[in-house]
Amino acid sequence: MEHYYPVIAGDDYIDGDARPFDSLDPATGDIVAVVDETTSAAVDAAVLDAQRAGIKWRSVRPLERGRVLTRIAEKIREQAEELARLETLDNGQPISQSRNDVEVAARYFEYYGGWADKVYGQTIPLGERYHSYTRHEPFGVVAMILPWNAPLQQAARGLAPALAMGNTAVVKPAEITSVTTVLLAKIAIEAGLPPGALNVVPGRGRHVGGPLVGHPAVSKIAFTGSFETGSALMRLAADRVLPIGLELGGKSPNIVFSDADLERVAASSWTAFTLKGGQVCSAGTRLLVHRSVHDEIVALLVDRAGRATVGPGLEDPDLGPLASAQQLETVTQYLDIGVAEGATLAYGGRRLDDGALGKGHFVEPTIFVDVKSHMTIAQEEIFGPVLSVIPFDTEEEAVQIANDTPFGLAAGIWTRDISRAHRVAAELESGQVFVNEYFAGGIETPFGGFKTSGFGREKGFEALLHYSETKTVTVRL
Ligand code: ADP
Question: Which among 106, 193, 380, 416 is least surrounded, fewest beta carbons within 10 Å?
Answer without folding.
Answer: 416
